[in-house]
Amino acid sequence: MSSHREKPPRLPFVVPLLALGTFVMVTSEFIIAALLPEVSADLGVSVSTAGLLITAFAVGMIVGAPTISIATLRLPRRSTLVLALAVFAVGHVIAALSSSFPIVLVARVIIALATGTFLSVGSVVATSAAGEAAASRAMGVMMSGMSLAIVAGVPLGSWVGQAIGWRGTFWALAALAGVAALFIGRFIPAAERAEVAPSVRSQLAVLRHGCMWLVLAATALVTGGFMAAYSYISPLLTERTGIPEGAVPLVLVGFGVGALLGTNITGRLGDRKPLATFLTTSVASVLVLLLLIPLSTSPVATVVLVVLLGVTGLGITSIATPLAVRFGHSSPALAAALTVSAFNAGIALVSWLAGTTLDTSLGVTGPEVVGAVMAGLGLIPLLVLAGMRATRTAAPQVSPPAADEEISRKAQARSVAA
């Protein structure tokens, strides 16, 4: 009887379908870094100029995710997901057909808007379909699409780009998005929609929730921390650890496998104790980053730590969104969209900050130092949040509506007395 109770409920089929869409979206996000030489040569721009395609995508995600989330409030969620995949596919087709860098740049912004919309709305669909008791596990499965993109999508896309050109990779991503749109349109129930057409003002009320902002701050800082190390892991492996360039992709596959484990493990643990899991995973990320600095001269230790960085760093993705949605329950889609923005804000900040340390005395360990500091700062909002939760638990519990009624009664009593 106890074993029957311990068996977790089966997740709805829509969750792995959303993981498929996430795989396509994240592959597109990360593949451009591997294709920059081909893109720059084909479009007649420098590699640094082509790098603006990465910046444009990040800005599109940061600004676009919450903006489009509000703009699509009155649309059924299934329709929003299918529309996002369609726009995503069209963006890749525009880029693949163009020989103009500005047009490709605009296409990347369009792709980013579609990606932010899909990830934010998809997060709400996954967590609501699974129910609160399995929300983090559902996010873990959905975010496993991100891990698979790192393990398989980016290497395969890079190989296709080198074999037949970067445009071939973009055509393949457009086709995969079309397949994902067909499956999601077919299998996600029409009932997965906003039950009531909410007003923009009621949705923006979520911005007043201090706890949600603490989650977003922690998400941006801790994500930026582990991405500082991951973004510049290749020079660390080759110049300091002494790993041959040909073996670097194998180490990155290890990172992806660790990420796949991390998103699923933390997803399961996060259903029971989301805040404690977030805090523990973040502390583990800081420790891994700190250990990478002195131990990166050892190939064995470095490979193990890179795998653990995948476990702890990407594991955060399956906890942060359900936690933000829980605190911003009045507007789950906007809360999820803001989490997407927080992820990308952390990545955008660290891509600049960590890169500046490579030419300092820190050398190739500079990104790890920056990452450890950023992730360490991310512990502060989590500790504040944990302290607030502990205080509320110790105090007599009064629900927000009851508290509002009590304040109203006292105000009326004072007015009568006056």
By CATH, the architecture of the largest domain is named: Up-down Bundle
| Portion in beta strands | under 5%
How many domains, in number, for the residues? Answer: 2
N-end to C-end Cα span: 63 Å
- Residues in helix, %: over 70%
Tell me the layout of helices and strands:
Elements: H1 2-6, H2 14-43, H3 47-50, H4 52-71, H5 77-97, H6 101-130, H7 135-164, H8 166-187, H9 200-204, H10 210-231, H11 233-241, H12 248-272, H13 274-295, H14 299-315, H15 317-327, H16 332-356, H17 366-394, H18 400-417
What features would you describe in this structure?
- The protein has 418 residues and is an all-alpha fold.
- The chain folds into two domains: 11-197, Up-down Bundle (Growth Hormone, Chain: A); 198-392, Growth Hormone, Chain: A.
- 83% of the residues lie in helices and 0% in strands.
- It has 18 helices and no strands.
- It has helices spanning 2-6, 14-43, 47-50, 52-71, 77-97, 101-130, 135-164, 166-187, 200-204, 210-231, 233-241, 248-272, 274-295, 299-315, 317-327, 332-356, 366-394, 400-417.
- The radius of gyration is 22 Å and the shape is globular.
- The termini are far apart.
Features:
Growth Hormone, Chain: A; 2 domains; disordered C terminus
What's a concise summary of this model?
It contains 18 helices and no strands. The chain is an all-alpha fold.
